[in-house]
Amino acid sequence: MASIVTLQFGDLTEKMHLFEGRVHIPTVKEAFALRVAKINGVLEPSDSQGFTHAKFPIPNSGDTLNISGTPAEVAAIPGTLQPV
Hints:
Blueprint lengths: L1 E8 L2 E8 L5 H8 L1 E6 L24 E8 L1 E2 L7 E2 L1
Parallel strand pairs: 1-4
Antiparallel strand pairs: 1-2, 3-4, 5-6
């Protein structure tokens, strides 16, 4: 059963589906342009499909997972990397 949770990264928020209570880490990283993503301050391991091993409770209205992490880098000029 899928449920929706709010993700908060600084002033940015996104909503995403949990799948059987698990978070899809690649989606979180893409949503906030992160190389490394932490959920509620914890670096959560994920399976081969990118879902966390940990299950998060079915969210109640207003439940939020706090996201932090390391920004991804993108090539602005060939051969150079710039933080996003």
